[in-house]
Amino acid sequence: MDQRVSFITLGVENVERANRFYEALGWKGSTPDGDVYFFQAGGIVFSLWNRAKLAEDSGISDSGGSSGFTLALNTRKQNEVDEIAGEVRAAGGTITREPGETFWGGYSCAFTDPDGHPWEVAFGSHYEITDDGQTKLKSPE
Amino acid sequence: MDQRVSFITLGVENVERANRFYEALGWKGSTPDGDVYFFQAGGIVFSLWNRAKLAEDSGISDSGGSSGFTLALNTRKQNEVDEIAGEVRAAGGTITREPGETFWGGYSCAFTDPDGHPWEVAFGSHYEITDDGQTKLKSPE
Questions:
Q1: Tens digit of pLDDT for each residue in A18-48?
Q2: What are the residue boundaries of the structural domains of chain A, listed by start?
Q3: How many contacts does A have with B, using Cβ atoms within 8 A?
Q4: Which of A17, A106, A110, B56 has the greatest count of CB atoms below 10 A from its CB?
Q5: What's the whole-model pTM score?
Q6: Is the ipTM of this complex over 0.90?
Q7: B137 contacts on A by Cβ (under 8 Å)
Q8: Is there a contact between B29 and B39 (Cβ–Cβ < 8 Å)?
Q9: What would the pLDDT profile of B41-55 be if each residue is shown by its tens digit?
Q10: Helices B15-24 and B79-91: crossing angle, nearest 10°?
């Protein structure tokens, strides 16, 4: 199995509401049918689909809530973390951890989207962001 | 907020067990401290961390289970889906949907890892995989 991830699909209660939230953050997706939204997100595809359909398609039972995973956007500059926290608030997301220094030496905040899916927005020195939006780990120094 | 994803972190009960599963699928990660594992996965970083710590760091309560998201690996050839299903079985994962044709015109299977986190392994025509492992949506035809 290739060491890659192609898609992250979030299961949401209402795809239009979820799409509006990510659009309010400046993202632009497309939908073939109004049922699923696709966003080219750097080198992967981020998508939004009905939560019950996603669970059924994945062959799992939906335990409710959102836990067991966190997505992260790593920034090129520290002040982007504060800026994005403001954008998230304006878009109706919930800041679950205010911007601040982290135990691993970085600077980050955390938020949840309208479906409670968690994100971290982080600035640090252990990765680089390529011009085309990929995140690459640096080798340990 | 840039339209990118940098990290996907899965919260797991036992990071060593989770790492062994992904290693058995042929993945190779690194850990700075034995507490967290990082895998360069195409243009993003896939990581494994203690579930309770991840929930606390994300400012959410852990509702248990794993639902609300599904990861996908999209393949370059259809027969990779069958091959990977075999690798997943051998590694101790659970095939939750056997390989077969999908409603969207592709071919895929679904599985869960030892923590119940769902993946789809999919072959289709609406994306391309770049030489460096990025997944790019094709424009609608």
A1: 999 999 999 999 999 999 999 999 999 999 9
A2: 7-137
A3: 269
A4: A110
A5: 0.96
A6: yes
A7: 30, 38, 40, 45
A8: yes
A9: 999 999 999 999 999
A10: 140
